[in-house]
Amino acid sequence: SDDNENVPEKESAALIPLEEKTVDFYGDQITAVLVEPTSGHQEVYVPLKPISDYLGLSWAGQLERIKRDPVLSEFLRGIRVTRIPKGEVSGGLQESTSLPLEYLPGWLFGINANRVKTELRDKIIRYQRDCYRALWKAFKEEAEATPFTTTTQQGRTVNWREPNPVLVQIRQQALVMAKMAEEQMEIEAKALDALDQAHYAHQRIDEFYLFANELDQKIGKIDQKVDDIDHKVDDIEQRVGDIDQTVRPGAIISEAQASVIVNTVKALAEYLTTKNPKKNHYQSIFGELSRRFQVGTYRRIKQADYPAVLALLDELQRSAGGEGIHTQSLLPLDPTPEA
Predict the structure, then answer these.
(1) What H or E segment, with its residue span, contains residue 37?
(2) Range of weakest confidence among 34-48, 74-88, 248-262
(3) In terms of C-beta density within 10 A (0-12 exposed, 13-18 middle, 19 or more buried), how is residue 39 classed?
(4) What does the alpha-carbon distance between residue 14 and residue 80 come to, in Å, rounded to a whole number?
(5) 102: CB partners within 8 A, 6+ apart
(6) Do residues 85 and 79 lie in contact, with contact meaning Cβ atoms separated by under 8 Å?
(7) Which residues have C-beta within 8 Å of that of residue 177, sequence separation ≥ 6?
(8) How far is it, in rounded angstroms, from Cα 188 to Cα 190?
(9) β-strand 157-159 against 149-151: which pairing, if any?
């Protein structure tokens, strides 16, 4: 059969049913059998694989889960039952993995209806709620007439009338629900812990971005200050250069001072031209400056000679009948008067 290989190995031979009944449970044909595991002790077993197939579950996965359960695995047995023909599968006897009817709810309630496909959820809940009762009714008369008992591998004998099977069912359901509640509590605790960690990480990321933004703003201000300092340094260097050219005796005149000399010579030449238009006064004035101060060009005049140059030009203008063109003895750093 399809599940022969999955029959528990702890039993040497499958049990032969004393009675077999098939119950129509909302269109599903569920088989339950009355067997005698030991002499004088009868009990009802239910093949599990057909129910697993009806519920759309993986039988291999369900069998593995049952074997891991310390209670259900203790009562797992192989039973010879009549296979119902279905499609291309023919009927006949087959060895089927089964549990006592009283432990069927323990297996069913171990299936989490919230973790299966939506179309299977209602059916699983219906099995969990009503399947035990439907199968129990099928053997109710035999149960009332004969005190069925269950013998475990450890030799314990359980009487079906004590405790009440309904109470056994309630107990099994409560145990399964308690186990499910514990698992759910553990899942929720882990989820809350993960949520706290994610919130903390998000908070740290926000703090990092805030710090990075503040740092970027400070760097921008520092760059601006550095630029301002660079401009001030350039200005200071320029002023120092001008002062250096002014105060060093051996240094030549600055560009500003050279400009003053050129403008003064131009004004003087224009004045002299009015007195004597035939003469090139520009050439004669620059020639006189070159001769007296020993320079090839006026730009090479020494800083120390600058006052004397201005005095000479003033003297030349006065000697021609003027009032003097330039009376300054020393040119300031900025020859252009401030407004």
Answers:
(1) strand 28-38
(2) 74-88
(3) exposed
(4) 6
(5) 150, 160, 165, 168, 169, 172
(6) no
(7) 109
(8) 5
(9) antiparallel
User: Does 159 score more than 70 pLDDT?
Assistant: no
What is the 8-class DSSP label of residue 85? P
Q: Which of 211, 236, 230 is nearest to 222 (CA)?
A: 230
pLDDT of residue 179: 81
- Residue 162 CA to residue 261 CA, distance in Å, equals 133
Q: Which two tokens stand for residue 52?
A: 């697993």
Do residues 36 and 18 lie in contact, with contact meaning Cβ atoms separated by under 8 Å?
A: yes
Phi, psi of 194 (to 5 degrees): -65, -35
pLDDT recorded at residue 3: 47
163 cis-preceded (ω within 30 degrees of 0): yes
| Residue found by looking up tokens 């939506």 in the block | 118
In the structure, what pLDDT confidence band is assigned to residue 130 with cuts at 50, 70 and 90?
very high
Residue type, 237: E
Q: 115 is written with which tokens?
A: 């973790």
Contact 30, 50 (CB under 8 A): yes
Residue corresponding to tokens 């007296």: 292
Greater confidence (41 vs 301) lies with: 301
Q: φ, ψ for residue 91 (rounded to 5)? A: -85, -175
Spell out the alpha helix ranges (H) of the chain.
49-54, 59-68, 72-75, 104-108, 118-126, 132-138, 140-145, 165-247, 255-275, 281-293, 306-319
Spatial distance between the Cα atoms of 137 and 131, rounded to a whole number of angstroms: 10
- Nearest residue to 94 via CA among 16, 11, 9, 27: 16
Kindly list the domain boundaries of the chain, sorted by start residue.
Answer: 4-162, 255-319
**C-alpha–C-alpha distance, residues 220 and 223, integer Å:** 5
174-188 CB burial, b ≥16 within 10 A, e <16:
eebeeeeeeeeeeee
